Amino acid sequence: MSDCYLPRLGGIEVQVDELAAVQRAAGHDVRVVTGTPGPPRDGLVRVGPRVPWALPLGGPLDAVLRDFAPDVLHVHAGVVSPFAWRALATCRDVPSVVTVHSLWAGPIGAVYRRLIGGGATVSTVSEAAARPIRRALDVPVHVVPNGIDTAPWKEVRPWLPTGAVLVAAVGRLAPRKEPFTLLRVLRDAGRRVPIRAVVVGDGPAAPAMRRYLRYHRMDGWVRMTGRLERAEVREVLASADVFVAPARRESFGLAALEARLAGLPVVAHEGSGVADFVRPEKEGLLGSCAADLADALVRLVGDAELRHAIAAHNEATEPERCTWPSVLTAFEKLYELSR
């Protein structure tokens, strides 16, 4: 059960869809129940009215539970997830796993403490996300990372001399992803070393970002592509040299994981979920603020030996815990634990 699902596009939506697919392939009977309006699909139940902007308001779940009689309920939740909350309140008698996909802050733990009440098995996607949940709930919190199919990202990347290092960033252009931190990092680094940059994604911050680029005369070397399909994102990453993930409150960082699989050194915040699969000077460089991220980017641009060594390591290895077979096994253990 998830507030957010396709055709909305984001990390939770992609993960829920792909997890259901690999579970079906493994022989499980999986139904996805969501409050997000959209077209029908096999194995999918949309609950609630159609509303403007496809808001996931949802509706009553009693009939759904009666028809399906699930053995285990897997609830996928963010920070504010009214549909997930309704599922946890309605389904107290069903063995449940709740996966939190966001970093908590403020009083949100009190809401979940009332809903979970010690009955659901709790997981999240990274150690960064697990720490505030453990403090708020005082229950075991299991870390199961987001899963990914590694094969499409492991194609051989031809090395071509392209002049200035190309920096890539991919993500929704919304405040939580800190798009203006990204632009400040690029601006700071661009003053010190020659770089080009490509920003993939769309969202409410896009118009203001374009104005920022024009005002600071960065639009000649920073290109904004808008939203791209995943195959097109792979093409962008195949041509890039470094990836930047600036958000401090990134619970996991699927785009950064994809870049790491594509062989790019990743520059990211050390307090985010990206730190679970990016180690300093192994898979990339980490920092504690925008200035640190700019320094890390400048270092990678100026130190070709380090940049190429990290790229070679990323191309030759994969984050085993994030592969779908490992994620599927981890969730099956949690389902058994919840029962």
TrEMBL record:
Keyword Endoplasmic reticulum in annotation: no
Keyword Transferase: yes
Domain (Glycosyl transferase family): residue spans on this chain: 163-311
UniProt-listed InterPro entries: Glyco_trans_1 (IPR001296), Glyco_trans_4-like_N (IPR028098), Glycosyltransferase_grp1 (IPR050194)
Domain Glycosyltransferase subfamily 4-like N-terminal: 10-151
Keywords per UniProt: Glycosyltransferase, Transferase
Pfam families documented for this protein: Glyco_transf_4, Glycos_transf_1
CDD domains per record: GT4_PimA-like
Source organism superkingdom: Bacteria
PANTHER family, sorted: SULFOQUINOVOSYL TRANSFERASE SQD2
Protein name: Glycosyltransferase family 4 protein
Organism: Actinocorallia libanotica
